[in-house]
Design brief:
- By secondary structure, the chain is α+β, with helices and mostly antiparallel strands.
- The protein has eight helices and twelve strands.
- It has a six-stranded mixed sheet with strand order 2-1-6-5-4-3. A six-stranded mixed sheet has the order 8-7-12-11-10-9.
- Strand 11 and strand 12 form a beta hairpin.
- The protein is globular and about 60 Å long.
- This is SnoaL-like polyketide cyclase.
Amino acid sequence: MTDFRNAPHTFLNTLWHVDEDRQGALFKDHLQEDVVFDVAHPVNRLEGRDAVREGFYAPMRQALAHVRRRDEIFIGGPNRREPGGHWVASVTHYAGNFEKPLFGIQPSNHLVFLRSGEFYRIEPDGRISEAKIIIDLLDLMRQAGRFPLPQMLGTEMLFPGPATHDGVLPEMQGDGEKTLDLCEAMLADLKAFDPETFTSKGQTGKDGYWHDDMLWYGPGGIGSNYRWSGFEKDHRAAFLTAFPDRVGGNHYCRIGDGNYAAVSGWPSMTMTHKGDYLGVPATNKALTLRVMDFYRCAGGKIMENWVLLDYLQLFSQMGRDLISEQA
């Protein structure tokens, strides 16, 4: 049986290496004519093959000279959530020299690694009909020396690949459905928390979901952290103080593949801005948040978690235009 992951993986990596004529032919072969891409703010929705090419791929190639894609995770599986179907998902970086503005962000004229989380629905004919993409433009601002927010809560760093170096088209691993079961159970219990300690049922300890040495890789604005204590200190406490009524898990896609799982919502989270957050005083506005989570599990524990959040869209809801500010 043909592995449905292979064709989109080859396509998504090859198209950056070819000239425009060959790229157009690849789009016809691998994207449905009425394909829809939802991309992080300020790109947002692109409808149709031509709009996707001109609204996402062309600006990326123009801004990031000699851009290349470097996958850290690339997995696929049947989607447990509506609308179902088979999906692939990836954590990747777009590496190139940042020589021209990208979506309003001014260039650095130096090498950048633009991190991206991506979900693609693959139709029975092998072509992509739908995509959701969160490119971390806030971290790109940081790399260009134009970061518009206070210092990150956690550690600023390039997203590492999995510690096991086996996240791209994994084979001969554990049962992806069981991996996803573990992550879904964790998410179900994570929703409720103690407002004094910010802890949630079953997350840590001998019978907890997370390994004691868990690593949590966060997006621009938050940064990364180590162990549950670091996660609480460098992300969870600040986030739940600002958004204490947050409700997450409104996902359009949940897949498992070997030791990996990926989930995403567009938006995933609804909440009210009730406390100061990253330099923005409470607005009491109702907000939504687009979210992508990628997990590596082993021995019945979550070992690593890569997180992409559309923070430019979140902050625009709070009245901050971070692109205008960095310019």
